[in-house]
Amino acid sequence: MTTSDSGKDITLHIAQNPEADELLGRSPLAALVGMLLDQQVPMEWAFTGPYTLAERMGSDDLDAGRIAAYDPDAFTELFTTKPALHRYPGSMAKRVQQLCQFLVAEYGGDASAVWRDAATGDDLLERLKALPGFGAQKAQIFLALLGKQLGVRPRGWREAAGPYGEAGSHRSVADITGPDSLIEVRAYKQEAKAAAKAAKAAKKPGTSRKQ
């Protein structure tokens, strides 16, 4: 994942931290872990997590086999040590370890094997949805990230990614290419959250009046 189809180095700007973004661009596992952590915390915090975790493990990259075999309590401590890697460090440490154990069992510990030979976007989407901690939405967002920024574009990838695959959209981390697009994506998320909250409130008993 270090170079695109054109042979150029891949540069990401999701974490808004040069070292963390450099790791995301060259490490398939770091990108997967960042996506896994991307819930209930700011996007930059989530995608800086892999870099911080690698540092705390004394390495310049993440290794699925090493994480899978790590003592669970000691691994949780890597997450809970201040500053914590997540708002819910204990549960996310468990999820990251489960993800790596799955990758070891199903892909020999090679994260890039999840998408390397995927023939179609639908095939890739199913593989991503099978990963521990990856629901349908998270799988589609990561598929969009792979296609839009990491050069992984099996046939039908945009369609499989749903709205997140649309060109020119600002819906998710797949669309973050710098500070300006980060602001646009954050604004979209806030608007979507407000709309969902309003819709939920409208459905509550007593919110409608009889004609």
Automatic annotation (TrEMBL):
One of its GO terms (molecular function) is catalytic activity. Residues 33-179 form the HhH-GPD domain. InterPro entries: DNA_glycosylase (IPR011257), HhH-GPD_base_excis (IPR017658), HhH-GPD_domain (IPR003265). It holds the Pfam family HhH-GPD. One of its GO terms (biological process) is base-excision repair. It comes from the Bacteria. This is HhH-GPD family protein. It comes from Streptomyces filamentosus NRRL 15998.
